[in-house]
Specification:
This protein is of the alpha/beta class. It is built from twelve helices and twelve strands.
Length: about 300
């Protein structure tokens, strides 16, 4: 089984909490789990990708955030809420990435038997953004090593409710982690050769990627792409980009690129995509793109912008 070829169904919702600080679930009968696929609902694309890759033929995966939609702005519909109550496992990012989660947790809705808060489960040191008044950067999946850790968490979750297929989940996870480690090694090899180490990005989403590969992130907007920077901030970034001889300004595929284009025009630079992978478009999904392939595209654009060998 190739874990990159499983299809992801799109719908709309996410979830919470824990057992031993990680997750909590009410055990369904083993016989029932052996006869039916586990229903996994993910709050957005990277987690849906992981669930499909790790679960393989023994899971049905629903991505709550529609293709091309902005997860920062997504709000589940009543139908999504009803669907979520019928899922076996709900996985969400956490770190205030999904703004609707708190209301959903505190509502009088039927909740799935198992929920996983990925950021809450990670052992990786979280990045606190001083510029955002100590807000935690939730974009952990942009470091391949961290999303590999999330794959291991999901593997343990699936084994806990379906021990009969433990070998398959372990094999799928091992294959995926090996691919993620190769991706990480490729990033390290290429980005170690760059002449420029500063990247101007559309919003404050790339702190984990920057930390992993010794780069510096200069964000135009804050943690949410909807945050509007002041004219003073735009002027400061323009001056800084000129001072550092930056020739490319990054924008995101699914977010408004107006600010990136404005700064690029101001300093005579060009624009390139640096995809947050928060949501793949319909065309990307139909074209067979996935986490690995989009991250490789990101590396190609970083190589060009940062003048790497």
């Amino acid at each position: 089984m190739n874990p990159r070829k499983y299809k992801i169904i799109v719908a709309g919702l996410a979830l919470p909490i824990l057992m031993a600080g990680l997750f909590f679930f009410e055990q369904d009968s083993v016989a029932e789990k052996q006869n039916n696929k586990i229903k996994v609902t993910a709050s957005f694309y990277p987690l849906a990708y992981l669930a499909s890759a790790v679960g393989g033929d023994f899971v049905t995966v629903v991505n709550l955030t529609p293709p091309g939609a902005e997860p920062h702005d997504f709000e589940p519909s009543p139908r999504d809420i009803e669907m979520l109550s019928k899922t076996d496992v709900f996985i969400y990012n956490g770190g205030n990435f999904e703004p609707w989660i708190k209301a959903w947790e505190g509502g009088s809705f039927s909740h799935p038997p198992l929920t996983v808060n990925m950021i809450g489960a990670l052992t990786t040191k979280k990045i606190e953004l001083i510029e955002s008044r100590s807000a935690t950067d939730p974009h952990v999946w942009l470091d391949p090593r961290i999303i590999a850790e999330e794959a291991e968490i999901l593997k343990d979750t699936l084994i806990a409710i379906d021990p009969a297929h433990e070998f398959v989940y372990r094999e799928n996870t091992s294959r995926l982690v090996e691919e993620l480690n190769s991706l990480d090694a490729h990033y390290r090899k290429v980005l170690n050769t760059c002449n420029i180490r500063d990247m101007v990005v559309s919003h404050e989403a790339f702190a984990y990627l920057a930390r992993a590969y010794d780069l510096s992130m200069i964000p135009i907007a804050g943690l949410s792409p909807d945050e509007e920077p002041s004219p003073k901030t735009l002027a400061f970034i323009s001056d800084l980009a000129q001072e550092k001889n930056i020739k490319y300004i990054f924008f995101e595929a699914i977010a408004n690129q107006k600010l990136s284009e404005t700064i690029a025009r101001e300093i005579g630079a060009e624009t390139l995509v640096l995809n947050t992978l928060e949501s793949l478009t319909v065309d990307e999904l139909r074209g067979g793109e996935d986490y690995i392939s989009i991250m490789e595209q990101n590396l190609n654009n970083l190589t060009k912008a940062l003048v790497c060998q």
